[in-house]
Amino acid sequence: MRRGLSKAGLGRLENEEQLIELAGAYGFEAADADAVTLIERHGVNGAKELLTRNGVELGAIGLPVEWRQDEQTFLSGLPQLTRSAAAAAELGGTACCTYILPSTDWNPAHFMAVATRRLRTCARILGAYGIRLGLEFVGPHHLRTRWKHPFIWTMDETLDWIAAIGEPNVGLLLDAYHWYTTGGTAEDIGRLKPEQIVHVHLNDAPDVPVADALDNGRLYPGEGVIDLGTFLRTLNGIGYRGIVAQEILTQTQPEESPEELARRSRAGFDRAYAAAGL
Amino acid sequence: MRRGLSKAGLGRLENEEQLIELAGAYGFEAADADAVTLIERHGVNGAKELLTRNGVELGAIGLPVEWRQDEQTFLSGLPQLTRSAAAAAELGGTACCTYILPSTDWNPAHFMAVATRRLRTCARILGAYGIRLGLEFVGPHHLRTRWKHPFIWTMDETLDWIAAIGEPNVGLLLDAYHWYTTGGTAEDIGRLKPEQIVHVHLNDAPDVPVADALDNGRLYPGEGVIDLGTFLRTLNGIGYRGIVAQEILTQTQPEESPEELARRSRAGFDRAYAAAGL
Amino acid sequence: MRRGLSKAGLGRLENEEQLIELAGAYGFEAADADAVTLIERHGVNGAKELLTRNGVELGAIGLPVEWRQDEQTFLSGLPQLTRSAAAAAELGGTACCTYILPSTDWNPAHFMAVATRRLRTCARILGAYGIRLGLEFVGPHHLRTRWKHPFIWTMDETLDWIAAIGEPNVGLLLDAYHWYTTGGTAEDIGRLKPEQIVHVHLNDAPDVPVADALDNGRLYPGEGVIDLGTFLRTLNGIGYRGIVAQEILTQTQPEESPEELARRSRAGFDRAYAAAGL
Amino acid sequence: MRRGLSKAGLGRLENEEQLIELAGAYGFEAADADAVTLIERHGVNGAKELLTRNGVELGAIGLPVEWRQDEQTFLSGLPQLTRSAAAAAELGGTACCTYILPSTDWNPAHFMAVATRRLRTCARILGAYGIRLGLEFVGPHHLRTRWKHPFIWTMDETLDWIAAIGEPNVGLLLDAYHWYTTGGTAEDIGRLKPEQIVHVHLNDAPDVPVADALDNGRLYPGEGVIDLGTFLRTLNGIGYRGIVAQEILTQTQPEESPEELARRSRAGFDRAYAAAGL
Predict the structure, then answer these.
(1) End-to-end distance of chain C based on CA atoms, in angstroms?
(2) Measured between CB atoms, which of C111, C116, C157 is closest to D116?
(3) Domain named Xylose isomerase-like TIM barrel: which ranges (chains A, B, C, D) (predicted)?
(4) Taking the CB of residue B167, how many other CB atoms lie within 10 A of it?
(5) pTM, whole model, 2 decimals?
(6) Which one of A211, B224, C246, D99 has the minimum C-beta count within 10 Å?
(7) How far is the alpha carbon of C120 from chain A, nearest alpha carbon, in Å?
């Protein structure tokens, strides 16, 4: 399982280039960087060269489409999605991710129908470029009542949604924090096939009751209470060989420099991988 | 628009054959009969001959799959669906219908995801045989709170669901009672394309507040307060040329004989078509 | 059936605006203009206003994707397709068309597989914007041996291909010249449902043996030997209410001015519609 | 990679039960047996018990649908497919396979379109039961001209076809004989993802020029010239962990008893796995 970095957890990064350089400098093999920006600034060959020079591959890109609002807003994002998919594919990217808010102001059944169609459209555009779409279920309890009606937040519900979308290139983004806050077990991961997982997020949770863990209250791997050893060992055991990228959402930006945070991230990954016997 | 009869509204029918004969005798052009039963009893040629002799075509068959419960129950219905589709196709049938309960004990978003996949599977099996799947939204207000959570009950939500299912052969079953109890207008029908409608149900509602109209409190066409003239005229105006089948759900079986009820149905259709200027 | 003009047959048109103005001036209700160009030059509102002022709606746009060559070329067209679809949708367009060459240098079975996937991708992007994809089978005999292997050229083969693509928004572009050069009959059109037809081309053929009619040897409607009365009458009879657009492919540009050619087109349409009793 | 036996290569087997018992007795972990027959004779629990008692799991079932002839024949096989899929799923089966003849009497492009739709329908029915469809490309040169027109026979063409079918549960049946007779290399296998392979066939080829190797001239693993060490090592290297089932097609039934042939098969597998370092 290749170690990756995202921007979330590195403080005040100046740009994509710094993310890639820090990833390379601290032993990470992937960076969740923006492919369009990289190509705009360096050209395709320059961007590839930047990645290669740092020993880093392109990780997951974010889904540049607002699929939760009105139809016009959704449609207006599709040209950008096509450009993003093309750009990511040029740099060797194979993953694009979005998250599922666990509550909604819509009628939830109706929203599920509309969002199923919209995410299918996104998956199909991505699929043309050989890119997969990862859906991240979101566990923190406070978000389940943040909007009017409960939506979905468990892994099994998300797998059912993926089946409803019905495209070969849709799978899970499995985030340790959401696994933890939805009461996930080793068995839950153990019954996945590796190809059902598009991307993995690594992070940790504070020592508070699970129901009180806030979405933006995450810790660096190994600094909290999530059993990341079991998490990573089980993922490895089912044959997952993709990227495990750090994602630390916090209420305020950390004080340390990006460099110090990258070193701290490296230490966290070392601890978590060691706990997994990897 | 061809007039059709279903069993609902003809009292204590003895069998499919009586439905077909009454349809033919009272000027109906279609009967929502069970194709498998007809073929079992008459063979394919005999069943065709029975229909032809009575001047009646096969209307819609019901979906013989329980898609609202557990997965095992759903799967166990698919062999029967394949047989039903094959049988209907042999008799010239092109429609299969099911209804959507407006509330559910499931988490509604999750149920929408699961049901989307299941109905897609049904649609694909039907589609192999050239048969379309009609989804009937169900309007009576009392059913919206009959189970724990609201699901969907409007035409627009159902059209969004049809798009989520994403198969070319899925459309609406448009029932006059549900159009009425969801506050449907001529404009609502007017913006449909005829190919979006798989089947139409005709019936009437008692003179009570709309919110009090019970699902099994339906009247014969022309005996109630629904503006069936507008309903049929608008359907005809958009180019719909399919079947308009009577469906009268009542709390108790009517006292009259099937023959008397068929005559009454005929009179009701005459009134409604006349009101539409057809 | 609304009369439409394309550029093919109007000589040396200066731009899209002239096409729209000539369409309006000579009683045509639609113009197969380029939506992206119109919006670039006039903005969305200006483009709409230009169409409205001339009493013309946007007809079919061409598919801006090369789906017959290598994969890289195919993929590089998708961002443009997304932009074109968005632009057409903004102007009320609902149709996008491409043609099928009747022979190919590829292994034909392999090409069919690859092209099925590619056109499905195109259809899905168009479908997100409510636009349909029309496939035009191409009849002239000389093209059947123009490349190494026969591909497909009949209406029935094309319908089978549409089923293989499997998207709800794919249908036929029915061109009178190709109907004629493939030996099409009224019965062939008569068994279509109107929603299977995305767009129609009108033109005529010289009085030569059918097998000698050249693809770029087309005449104006009513100036040749195709039974356009039967063609249009049957289309109207099955309920087709879409656009019938002129497309005249010739070896050399005609000498007349666009204005004279528009007048000639109008006369041709008048003759053909009159022959159809419309 | 689990070793499996099919009937092809065991001579005059009496029934499915003997296949399962021989598989168990000679160290095979899977048997390509007919699930419907097993359940008819033993009931679901009895059939499961028979498999468990012999330490054998259900391998791939054959596709019980004739998809290469007329539409009526195709459709008439779908009820049986639904039953077979249900039966296989009840016994834990996850694979169903069919083969692609490398030439055809149809127009090959047209046949590709029709067969794409039909195999999609089959895949969807299988997919409802969690069963995958494996497509076997067929390499022997003499079959490429056996019917009028070339169809497809390479792995890459087959992968393109799988993409055209477009269902998540369709993949390759990779047969050592067809890999060999199409000039397959380790690199060809090396660029597959394990989930692209539904089933594997093991067998060997006589020491004749590749172009002369007959489809029904196959040898037991390790008795011929195919580099099965490379074949199996590469499959294992990409992470394939599914079944490798023997399939020996010969012109005449071998003289030996099923028991002797099972022993010989075991020895062949031992040689091939040893050559692969497994």
Answers:
(1) 9
(2) C116
(3) 23-262
(4) 22
(5) 0.95
(6) A211
(7) 9
